[in-house]
Design goal:
Aspartate Aminotransferase, domain 2; 352 residues; single chain; 2 domains; 3-stranded antiparallel sheet; 10 strands; alpha/beta
Amino acid sequence: MDWQANVIALMARGFFILGPELDRFETSLALALGARYAIGVSTGSTAIEVSLRDAGVVEPKQEVITSAMTAPFTGVSIAAAGATPRFADIDPETLQVDADDLGNRIRKRTAALVPVHLYGQPCEIGQIARVAKQQKLKLIQDACQSHGALPFTEYGDYVALSFYPTKNLGCLGDGGAILTNKPGTAKRLRQIRDGGRGSGGLPRNQIAYVKGINARLDELQCCYLNAFLPHLHRWNEQRKRLARIYDEMLSGLDAIRLLRRTADSVCHLYVVRAKKRDRLRDYLQGLGIGTGIHYPVPLHLHPAFASSGQKKGDLPHAEKAATEIVSLPLWPQLEEDRVREVAEAVRRFYAK
């Protein structure tokens, strides 16, 4: 397999950080996703953090608005950069961040927007990008679940990706990248991810010129990513096919509320809103069918983000959705007959 050949070549070189595998992956990733530049970093979280640092959003007095319905790592990344996260409500039909609600929450302290393209589907990024431009706010897109959905760099200078193993493009550990179309931005991002050090030989490569962090994507993970990237489009198409089977088999079921998806969704997760959600999950588990909840508690109710000043009742759509959402099995290699079995099990549960 390609990844094995890549690993063998890596071991022969003995060069494990910032080497030729990363160079090759960055070039291929940018080409595949419609960007001019890709900068490999250690995680999707550091992709957001490094972007905020480059954008100058690094002070507690600077607020960053993101979705309440996302992984906690989005909020953690904002806090790690030094800023204060605040949260917007969601569209109950898509669970994407509500562009109107996000715009209405902008105030004097707002410095940046971090819209999330959740579950593989682009949010209302056109509207959000216009708001960011009008209000002179930095825009960092969290596309950690949406590899290949859109050429996101058309809307802003920073697009964060994650290569966590369950992502549409995953590695065998942690990994991430930032996409941008601006050469100057790409150069600065590469410096920040490498401790702020200069390029070239001694002494520049041992002097920190800016406040950077250690956020490098290692060569070993790039061995896997270089082997997996050519399959991304095919895997995305298979996810879409499986999602359509779920749609067909679960439509018309009163207890299940399907999410509204756009044609460009790459279906990272298949999420529905379900009545008696927890009892449904127990029933499916008894049949050997695993499920998930993405995500059980909106971010404004996490103790870590109490500084947002938001409390229970402030974001009703996110709070309600968190009690109903369930993620059904979905990955590219899942057999279509298995999807039908899961959907039939869901229908049997509610028939009882």
